[in-house]
Each structure stands twice: as structure tokens, then as C-alpha cells.
Amino acid sequence: MKRALLLTGLGAVGYLAYRALKPRYDFRNKHVLITGGSRGLGLVMARQFAEAGARISICSREPNELLRAVDDLNRYGERVVAVECDVTNRDRVREFVAYTQLRNGPTDVLVNNAGIIQVGPFDEMREEDFAQSLATHFWAALYTTLAVLPEMKARRTGRIVNIASFGGKVAVPHLLPYSVGKFALVGFSSGLRSELRQHGIVVTTVCPGLMQTGSHLNAGFKGRHEEEYAWFATGNAVPGFSMTAETAASKIISACVRGDAELVLGLPAKLAVAFQALCPNLMADILALTNDHILPEPGGIGTATAKGKHSRGALPDAVTARTDRAAARNNEVAGAGAPPPLLLPSS
């Protein structure tokens, strides 16, 4: 027994020493491509990658968001390519990646960050909500990965960072379509890492908990949408329970530098993921009780969707003041105009 413990300890020390001495990835003059990079966490990551000396490419379905994001990122002095692109469209993704590679060179780092959030009871969700989540969280990540892999394999180097969620580890009630998409992304990303290492490509799966990005204003809410917004927005705003986008982005970039297999962000998320793994039956009971006695019942607007900014209801502004400021800072709400982005021609 003592021998086994000694060998285990020596192995752990050796592994930590290997990680400490391993060459650190340098982003200077690297091309970093970020989907969903025009607002929220994606924009904050783009800022920090640019500060590290990277050339940045971003995309979004919203041209006005791209206008503002380009103006924001140009302050960092690095080359920014912004393209209007629906990442659920395979052909447009191929065009987007090819265009950015012409402008910024081969893709060194791919960050699959595009996402959507639908909040509400299962009874108010439609098949289309699940299809949309899978298209955005899984299929879009697959399309971009397939588009960048040939050059990464040819150069035998590259980094892929998939922004999933702790909701891809724990199926939180009233977020079922979101969890389905994120569970798919976690499985894809974890398996991809094992298969691409032989080609010199490192894949990192990121599972953030609640963050203060301002996304509560653009999330979609169904059923009793004002009540759904209240619990969701409050959870995002509680200090200590949620993490700032700036802190999250810094930790994600550090994980990319190290080449970590997985990163779970935030103590509440880490505890939930650990509890799910160790006590799945008890966790299922806790989540069921939460659904039965805390979360809103079906009703309200039913299967229709209302944005968070239209669902604020009676929730005091003071509750979400912190995340509302983050929304303004991270381009989740409209601001001043900016130079036009570089747009692909219509197909």
C-alpha cells in the first residue's frame, strides 16, 4: 500500500513538473478565429487575445453587433476581420473560414463560442428549440472544426477551444434544449481531443458556470417569461455565485495556453459537476424538487419567446445592475455606430 501511494505521489509530482516545464503557447502573430465573437464572452475573449498580440477574426449573424465589435477591437491595434455569418449554415461557415484565412492567414486557434439560451419548462418547448440548440452548439462547432482541420493537420499544430457549459454536464431544469446542445458539444469536444493529439492539435473543453456577461438580456424566455427571467437573471447577478466575463476569459485563455483537456469555471459549477458525478441519484432528486417547488409552472406566453430585455417585469433594476453594466460594456445592447465590417457576398 505504501509503495502504491509513493508511486502515485511521484507520478503526480512528475506530471506537475512536466506541465510547469512544457513550452507555453504564444499568441503573438497567431490567427485566432472566434465564433459569436461580437458580444458577451466572445468579445471579451477577442479583446484579451488581441492584447496578447493575436490577429482576430470574428463572426455574428447580427451586422450591427459586428459594427460595434469592430470599433471596440480596433482600439487594440491588431488586425480584425469581422464577417456576417450564420454558423448553422455549413456552406457559409466554409466561406467564412476561407475568407478569414485569406485575410489573417491559417487558423492557429479556433474558439467555438457561438451559443443561444432558451429558458422555460419542457412543456413550452418545441422540437424547433431542440433543433436550434443542436445546430448552434454542436453542428456549428463541427462545421468550423472541419473547415480549419486540413491546414492544422498539414502544419501539425493548432488549438481548438470549445465553449460548452456546466449545463453540458448537469441537465438543469427549464434549460433542457440548451443542455441537450451543450451535452452534445462536451461529448464531441472530449472525444475530438483524443483523436487529434496525434496531429499536434490540442482541444480544450470549457464548461463555465453562471457569468456576468449581460446575456440575460438576449436570452429567450418562454411560458411565464417574467418569472423565468427573474430566476435566471438573479442567478447571473449574484456576486460569488457568478463570474465576470473578464475573469472567465482570462482563465479560458490560460487553459488554452496550457493545453488543458477541460476547464470548469466557478466554484458552484465545480461543485455541481462533482456532485452529479459522485451522487447522480441524489442530484436528480434535488433538481426535481427545484423544478417542482421553485421554478415557474407552464403558462404565460406558452411556446412563444420573449427576449430578456422584454421580460424584466417587476424585478428591481438594482438586482441586475451589475449584469446590466456588463451588457453595455460587452455589446449585448445597442451602442454607437462604427466602421462597417468586412462582409461576405450573398450566396
TrEMBL record:
Gene3D superfamilies found in the cross-reference section: NAD(P)-binding Rossmann-like Domain (3.40.50.720)
Molecular function as annotated in GO: oxidoreductase activity
GO CC, alphabetical: membrane
Keywords: Oxidoreductase
InterPro entries xrefs: KR_dom, NAD(P)-bd_dom_sf, Sc_DH/Rdtase_CS, SDR_fam
Chain residue ranges for the region called Disordered: 301-324
Domain Ketoreductase stretches: 30-281
SUPFAM superfamilies: NAD(P)-binding Rossmann-fold domains
One protein family per Pfam: adh_short
Keyword Oxidoreductase part of the UniProt annotation: yes
This protein's record includes keyword DNA-binding: no
Family: Belongs to the short-chain dehydrogenases/reductases (SDR) family.
Protein name, as recorded: Ketoreductase domain-containing protein
Organism, as annotated: Gemmata massiliana
